[in-house]
Amino acid sequence: MDLGISGKWALVCGASKGLGRGCAEALVREGVNLVVNARSADALQQTAAQLREEGARAAGAAPQVIAVAADITTPEGRAAVFGAAGGPGKDFDIVVTNAGGPPPGDFRDWDRDAWVRAVDANMLTPIELIRATVDGMAARGFGRIVNITSSAVKAPIDILGLSNGARSGLTGFVAGAARSSIAARGVTINNLLPGRFDTDRLVGTINAAAAKTGKSVEEVRRMQQAAIPAGRYGTPQEFGAICAFLCSVQAGYMTGQNVLADGGAYPGTF
């Protein structure tokens, strides 16, 4: 299927590894030009080089890939992304928001500063990126914003209280913003909710669960995968494919949705 987005510009945050990289790979294979962002310069530059090669193989003509190593959760980081030489400024057609989740733990141990950091990274930063780009998208008649959040928005995880709270706040904001006047101007905003995917973030939560329960890491992994109807963890590549579809012209009638990708783990009807 031709997703109809070749030649467009996308910003993909947290793109050096994991789910963000999966999204970047899927988009570049569709011929999308990328500004990729992450904090680690070395890892990001290596990823950017590989994305250029991937795009050239899959799309024929190599899409542009610009790497901007910066902390997207800060005003300075966002300014660096929007000011990247050779990039589109703020005129992105596609924005994939993604920031590292806050640490797991016990809510009794989190002070106000911990909550502020979580809300700033996982709620306010996506809102700032939306605010900076959405009007330009509406003026051009096309825009796709995908927020990588978490399945914990639907089924909270006890040790991820910071993430549960901050991401739920973003979900409520998107529910209103996606249904504003931009919906009739070709702009969609959706949330993509990952369950357990085989990433570095998963390793952190497994280690925390093992420490809390006294079980081994291997035992926690086996128990988790056995509880997923698909019988396994997801891969960043299949997550990226879902993201690319949400960015496509075919997905223009989907907005304000929370798209759950968890191998069937969530047991609810809605």
Describe this structure as you would to a colleague.
This protein has 270 residues and is an alpha/beta fold. It is 44% helix and 14% strand. The chain has eight helices and seven strands, in the order E-H-E-H-E-H-E-H-E-H-E-H-H-H-E. It has helices at residues 18-29, 41-59, 75-82, 112-140, 161-177, 200-213, 217-226, 236-246, and strands at 9-13, 33-38, 65-69, 94-97, 143-148, 187-194, 258-261. Strands 3-2-1-4-5-6-7 form a seven-stranded parallel sheet, sandwiched between helices. Helix 1 links the parallel strand 1 (9-13) and strand 2. Helix 4 packs parallel to helix 5. The longest helix has 29 residues, at 112-140.
List keywords for this structure.
single chain, alpha/beta, seven-stranded parallel β-sheet, 8 helices, 44% helix, globular
Shape descriptor reads globular
Strand content: 5-15%
Mean pLDDT: 95
Secondary-structure-derived class: alpha/beta
Count of separate DSSP helical elements: 8
Order of helices and strands: EHEHEHEHEHEHHHE
Oligomer: single chain
- The first-to-last residue Cα distance is 29 Å
Most strands sheet: 7 strands, parallel
Gyration radius, rounded: 18 Å
Which consecutive residue ranges, at least 5 long each, have pLDDT under 50?
none
Q: How do the helices and strands line up, and which of them pair or pack?
A:
Blueprint: E1 9-13, H1 18-29, E2 33-38, H2 41-59, E3 65-69, H3 75-82, E4 94-97, H4 112-140, E5 143-148, H5 161-177, E6 187-194, H6 200-213, H7 217-226, H8 236-246, E7 258-261
Parallel strand pairs: 1-2, 1-4, 2-3, 4-5, 5-6, 6-7
